[in-house]
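Table 4 source record.
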Amino acid sequence: MLLNVSYNDPSQKKSIDQEVGRTFSLKKRWSLGGIGSKKLIINSASIDIHNLLILDQNINTCNIELRPKGIIVRFRSLLETYGLIIPYYKLKIYKGKSQEYSIYLDHYFVKILADSSDIHKFVKKINRQKALNSPPNLEDL
């Protein structure tokens, strides 16, 4: 779900927390080695996100925050902050080119430039959290 998260709206915060969980505790953040990515450059995006990004002349950047049940991809347009709230069960991450990751949620997508090893490590961290929070396979039961 794509939301404008610029303002402190308790009902919106509650729906985000239901979707991807509350933020990690300080102890858990420390054990994970951080829950936020550095600034990521957006190469391309779905039409809904692209229409927001072209409203200003700034470089299109985003960051990713880990949550217990999903991730939040945040980006800015004009003076507003938008968040793409993605629960792990709907998250798809593809690596098409060697220096690009694609993050999908239903019909939304964001393609980010992976120009350093920090980004590759962070995507591995996302995949680890997704694996830990996925339901068991039928064969495991």
